[in-house]
Specification:
- The model has no long low-confidence stretch (mean pLDDT 92).
- Helices cover 24% and strands 37% of the residues.
- It has two domains: 60 residues, Roll (2,3-Dihydroxybiphenyl 1,2-Dioxygenase, domain 1); 54 residues, 2,3-Dihydroxybiphenyl 1,2-Dioxygenase, domain 1 (Roll).
- It has a four-stranded mixed beta sheet. The chain has a four-stranded mixed beta sheet with strand order 5-8-7-6, covered by helices on one side.
- 22% of the residues are buried.
- It is of the alpha/beta class.
- InterPro entries: Glyas_Bleomycin-R_OHBP_Dase (IPR029068), Glyas_Fos-R_dOase_dom (IPR004360), VOC_core (IPR037523).
Length: 138
């Protein structure tokens, strides 16, 4: 397998709420909800960078499509990271997320590895890290 991630799908409880959070709150570009003509097809895609999209899909649809049991929200067993160019930008993104309805899990601050980062959870409990790493330019 040649690893190449092109889509990250987050299972959400309320599709409209998730679209509002990511589109209106965080400013991610999207064409909105599509696929409503299919029983479990309603989904929204957000452009993250070339050849990488974020999808939000109802938790019930993901369970139905995979055949796995319906489970609860995000658990903190993994996080998505958004690396930015400065400590000030970390603070700006964390404030934007908070204003959009995110729960701040760990306020931004200096890290043990020499960077600056904080964590928030989206309304469905998915964990995001916002980080400035001086050794990893954006």
């Amino acid at each position: 397998m040649r690893p190449h991630i092109s889509l990250i799908t987050l299972a959400v409880e309320d599709l409209q709420r998730a679209v509002a959070f990511y589109r209106d709150g965080l400013g991610l570009p999207t064409n909105g909800i599509m696929g409503t003509e299919f029983e479990i097809g309603a989904v929204a895609f957000f452009d993250l960078q070339p050849n990488l999209k974020l999808a939000v899909w109802p938790r019930t649809s993901l369970a139905a499509d995979t055949g796995l049991p319906l489970t609860g929200g995000g658990t903190g067993s993994f996080s998505l990271a958004h690396n930015v160019a400065s400590e000030a930008e970390v603070d700006e993104v964390m404030q934007q997320a908070s204003t959009a309805g995110a729960t701040i899990i760990k306020p931004a601050g200096s890290t043990f590895w020499g960077g600056y980062a904080g964590y928030f959870q989206d309304p469905d409990g998915h964990l995001w890290e916002v980080a400035f790493n001086p050794e990893m330019p954006v």
